[in-house]
Amino acid sequence: MRFHIGMEAERIVRQRGVAPREARRLAAAAFGGWRSTRMRGVTRAA
Length: 46
Fold this sequence. Notes:
Helix content is about 70%, strand content about 0%. The chain has helices at about 1-15, 20-30, 35-40.
């Protein structure tokens, strides 16, 4: 999941000119954030 969020964040930075930190937040939100991902049974790597 981190890979996909990272790739989406890079795309947002390139296309929208958003700061990297904000781009990661937007990318995570687009995927539903960690909470909804956990609810689907995918856990965050430590």
